């Protein structure tokens, strides 16, 4: 994904993975799409989330029916109308608007908890890359101010950077806690010492992650363009680049570690319990930071993550998370 960003005219703070899809797969002019359903329906929120990735002219028309995911939704595209449930509607959407694709063509048999972890790695990797590019842009800009008026003054831009990093930090910390409390203990019970290096890497990176947040706070109060400011921005870029390198190495090591989860021979019920415990630990990521987290995924990946959430046995939890991602449109 990183190679797509270099020639964009957008600020590094604004680029999302889906922008890359839209550059190379332009969406043709399409008729207005209307989705009819209850504003509190989990299924309506799910289908709306899928449609939002297609870059369409979209209207959601709330019905008077009480929320019930047992009721079919109605999707109207131009003169065509289809009524149905999750799979019927998603297949219809994919057939009409294949780009960007929202479903993998290959069947992935990896345990649910492994899929969740890998997708979290992808989001964290993208967000961290964005922070590095943003800091690099600031450090090489010299005395020139940003040409993007939406970013505001230099101090306003730094505050935006600080806010984004604080959000990323919270996701990274929860992800590490999820691995340490849920995934690693299962692997350690099967083979003691298997996760020793991974735990040590978490402990190594924690002070750096927190230190970067404090660095940004210090730079925000400095006068723009002064030697101290320039040195602070340069050091910030260096520390972010170093953290990015550590995370890349760590995630590469876990590519070999996580598949071993399947060999722990947990029962289906036990695997489901471990899978759902991940969401218990990562409450902020799956509540007020959920949209931020999903921004770091390609449409295909984001849809897979939401599909995983739909597998949760706790339907109230599922409804809460799915509603978050589309409540601003309902």
Summarize the structure.
The protein is α+β, with helices and mostly antiparallel strands and 330 residues long. It is 59% helix and 6% strand.
SSE topology sketch:
Elements: H1 17-24, E1 33-37, H2 42-52, E2 58-62, E3 73-77, E4 80-84, H3 86-96, H4 112-140, H5 154-190, H6 196-220, H7 227-257, H8 268-281, H9 290-295, H10 299-309, H11 315-326
Parallel strand pairs: 1-2
Antiparallel strand pairs: 1-3, 3-4
Description:
The chain has 330 residues and is α+β, with helices and mostly antiparallel strands. It contains eleven helices and four strands; from the N terminus they run H-E-H-E-E-E-H-H-H-H-H-H-H-H-H. A four-stranded mixed beta sheet has the order 2-1-3-4, covered by helices on one side. Strand 3 and strand 4 (80-84) form a beta hairpin. Helix 2 runs parallel beside helix 11 (315-326). It is globular, with a radius of gyration of 22 Å.
Major sheet strand order: 2-1-3-4
Tell the overall outline: globular
Largest sheet features: 4 strands, mixed
Compute the separation of the termini in Å: 30 Å
Rounded mean pLDDT score? 85
Pick out the low-confidence regions: 1-9, 20-27
The tally of strands reads 4
**N-to-C order of helices and strands:** HEHEEEHHHHHHHHH
**What percent of the residues sit in helical stretches (DSSP H or I)?**
55-70%
Oligomer: single chain
Please count the helical segments: 11
Beta-strand content estimate: 5-15%
* Rg result: 22 Å
């Amino acid at each position: 994904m990183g190679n797509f960003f270099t020639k964009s005219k957008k600020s590094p703070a604004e680029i999302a993975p889906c922008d890359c899809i839209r550059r190379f797969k332009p969406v043709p002019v399409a008729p207005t799409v209307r989705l009819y359903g209850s504003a509190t329906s989990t299924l309506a929120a799910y289908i709306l989330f899928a449609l939002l990735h297609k870059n369409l002219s979209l209207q959601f028309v709330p019905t008077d029916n009480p929320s019930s995911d047992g009721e079919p939704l109605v999707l109207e595209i131009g003169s065509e109308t289809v009524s149905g449930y999750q799979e019927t509607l998603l297949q219809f959407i994919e057939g009409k608007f294949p780009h960007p694709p929202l479903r993998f063509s290959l069947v992935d048999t990896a345990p649910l908890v492994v899929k969740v972890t890998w997708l979290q790695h992808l989001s964290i990797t993208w967000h961290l890359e964005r922070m590095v590019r943003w800091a690099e842009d600031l450090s090489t800009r010299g005395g020139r101010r940003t040409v993007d008026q939406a970013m505001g003054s230099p101090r306003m831009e730094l505050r935006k950077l600080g806010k984004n990093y604080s959000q990323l930090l919270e996701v990274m910390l929860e992800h590490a806690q999820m691995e340490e409390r849920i995934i690693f203990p299962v692997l350690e019970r099967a083979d003691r010492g298997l996760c020793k290096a991974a735990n040590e890497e978490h402990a190594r990176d924690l002070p750096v992650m927190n230190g970067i947040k404090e660095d940004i706070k210090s730079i925000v109060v400095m006068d723009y363009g002064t030697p101290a400011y320039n040195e602070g921005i340069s050091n910030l870029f260096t520390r972010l680049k170093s953290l990015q390198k550590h995370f890349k190495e760590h995630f590469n090591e876990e590519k070999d570690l996580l598949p071993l989860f399947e060999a722990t021979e947990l029962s289906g019920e036990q695997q489901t319990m471990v899978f759902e415990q991940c969401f218990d630990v990562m409450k902020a990521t799956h509540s007020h930071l959920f949209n931020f987290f999903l921004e770091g995924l390609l449409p295909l990946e984001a849809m897979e993550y939401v599909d995983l959430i739909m597998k949760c046995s706790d339907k109230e939890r599922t409804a809460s998370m799915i509603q978050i991602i589309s409540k601003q449109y309902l």
